[in-house]
Write a structure and sequence with these properties.
Elements lengths: L25 H16 L4 E3 L9 E7 L2 E14 L2 E5 L8 E6 L2 E7 L5 E7 H13 L5 H4 L1 E4 L7
Antiparallel strand pairs: 1-2, 2-3, 3-6, 4-5, 5-8, 6-7
Bound molecules: nickel (II) ion (NI).
């Protein structure tokens, strides 16, 4: 287990389009395992490779405790409906905002073993996957969000 450093907004690594993974190696598996540890350590529900400084198309997500998704070269093949999601990001600490996302998606990817998997997801799970997917194209939630604010300000 290893906790990796999370890249913060302002670093150009977060703004680049990531390249596809050509082979699911032990090294990628190790990195993904570290990403799960890092995500949990910061109480996050998802973490994408560029957030740990790696410009490749993969991410991990844990929309509910114990339900971990490993998504390598993900492609969102279908999206339907609409939902407004309150989002934050481990790379943009201290801010949340409201983002319009599809209510349902179909996403195909390679899993941790390099096997092709397809998921039909909705609600919060669809939300998390869309947020992480955006990271692979250099997009942050603050690019799309409305009402961006620091929730700590509301407590006063
Ligand atoms: Ni994020």
């Amino acid at each position: 287990m290893a906790i990796r450093n999370i890249v913060k907004e302002g670093d150009e690594v977060l703004r680049k389009k990531c390249r596809e993974v050509t082979e699911v190696t032990d090294r990628i598996r190790q990195t993904m395992d570290d990403m799960v540890d890092t995500m949990r350590d910061s109480y996050g529900v998802g973490l994408a490779a560029p957030q740990v400084g790696i410009m490749r198309r993969y991410f991990v997500a844990e929309p509910e405790p114990g339900k971990v998704f490993y998504m390598i070269n993900p492609v969102i093949t279908k999206q339907e409906g609409n939902q407004v999601c309150e989002e934050g990001c481990l790379s943009v600490p201290g801010l949340i905002g409201e983002v319009n996302r599809p209510q349902r998606i179909t996403i195909t990817a390679l899993d941790r073993d390099g096997k092709e998997v397809t998921y039909d997801l909705e609600g919060f799970e669809a939300n998390v996957m869309c947020h992480e997917y955006d990271h692979l194209d250099g997009i942050l939630f603050i690019d799309k969000a409305e009402n961006i604010h620091d929730p700590a300000d509301e407590e006063e």
